[in-house]
Amino acid sequence: MIRKVTILSLAIMIFASVFTIPAFASNGGAQTVQQQKKMVNIAHRGASGHAPENTMAAFEKAFEMKADYIEIDVQMTKDGELIAIHDTTVNRTTNGTGSVGDYTLEEIQQLDAGSWFGQEFVGERIPTFEEIIDTYRGKIGLLIELKSPELYPGVEEKVAEALIERNMHKPNNKKIIIQSFNHESVQQSKELLQNIPHGVLAGTAWANVTDEQLAQFATYADFFNPNMNIVTDELVDRVHNSGMKVYSYTVRTQEQADNLFERNVDGIITDFPEYVYRHPGKN
Ligand code: G3P
Ligand code: CA
User: Fold this and answer.
1) Would you report the helix, strand and coil content of the chain in percent, each value rounded to 5?
2) Where do the structural domains in the chain lie, given as residue ranges?
3) CATH architecture of 38-277
4) Are 178 and 199 contacting, i.e. CB atoms less than 8 angstroms apart?
5) Does 169 qualify as catalytic in the annotation?
């Protein structure tokens, strides 16, 4: 009997010590596994460090890498179709030239959106927004960026229609977020999709955002998503106090990911999802 009690006590002590050791050396031992929250891992334009951004290859890679979300830049063609592309011209990421909004869907899908990144991606197309959400709904989170919406009147309604048609606007769809640098567009979208969380993107010009501005954002946004270069402990605290979460962009090195972990952000938007997974106990 005494022997059984001793073995049980020993087992409890070992279990307790395993789960209270500092989880990651670079955090100075301040947090234990028990205290850590999950860091949300968002693949920026898909896993764009590994495959051409905003293509199905990049989204598929993010899915394979078990990222929590794919981030998608949504723009609109001349004939009103929603597509995924970051720049407002096709010059950098395809074999074509000119403005996105000057192409019809048929024309833009004839472009090669993969070979600029690597020969193994020759033939990748610019995908439609509907193709992406039909492929990945329920499989991975969708962080939808309305990219330069001022160039595409009605883009907020088009995105809302696509989601509503599929019943993806209901409160149970927890892993859909809409964001934009254009905060008026975020407000418009929030009015159309009241159950979907929205985020304001904040470039370096927002380094000195005031508490009043944060409170105003929080009237329609659930996320304040800043450029990583303006992230400080104090900013993260103030955003949290305003009731919003912080998903910060764009991590392209392990050091940058480590810094954001230290700053206690809620999510990391990265070209390389593996940098976010290298933190044992946090994912
Ligand atoms: O999701 C944040 C990030 O995508 C914003 O910057 O220029 O890469 O769209 P950008
Ligand atoms: Ca983006």
Assistant:
1) 40, 20, 45
2) 1-35, 38-277
3) Alpha-Beta Barrel (3.20)
4) yes
5) no
Q: In 196-233, which positions are buried (b, 16+ CB within 10 angstroms) versus exposed (e)?
A: bbbbbbbeeebeebeeeebeebbebbbbbbbbbebbee
Residue with CA nearest ligand 1 atom 5: 249
240 counts as catalytic: no
With b for 16 or more beta-carbon neighbours within 10 A and e for fewer, the 88-119 pattern comes to eebeebbebeeebeebebeebbebbbbebbee
| Distance in Å, CA 152 to ligand 2 centroid | 16
Q: Residue written as tokens 């940058």?
A: 256
How close is the Cα of 244 to the center of ligand 2, in Å?
19
Reported pTM: 0.87
Taking the C-alpha atoms of residue 12 and residue 111, their distance in angstroms, rounded to an integer, is 61
Sole residue written with tokens 């070979």: 115
Of the residues 50, 86, 198, 279, which is catalytic?
86
Q: Where does ligand 1 bind, in terms of residues with CB under 6 Å?
A: 44, 71, 73, 86, 145, 201, 249-250, 269
User: H-type helices in 19-136, by residue range?
Assistant: 56-64, 105-108, 129-136
Q: Closest residue (by CA) to atom 2 of ligand 1?
A: 249
The tens-digit pLDDT sequence of the chain (283 residues) is 444 444 444 444 444 444 333 333 333 333 433 334 689 999 999 999 999 999 999 999 999 999 999 999 999 999 999 999 999 999 999 999 999 999 999 999 999 999 999 999 999 999 999 999 999 999 999 999 999 999 999 999 999 999 999 999 987 666 999 999 999 999 999 999 999 999 999 999 999 999 999 999 999 999 999 999 999 999 999 999 999 999 999 999 999 999 999 999 999 999 999 999 865 555 4
Q: What are phi and psi of 250, to 5 degrees?
A: -115, 115
Question: How big is the chain by its Cα radius of gyration, in Å?
Answer: 21
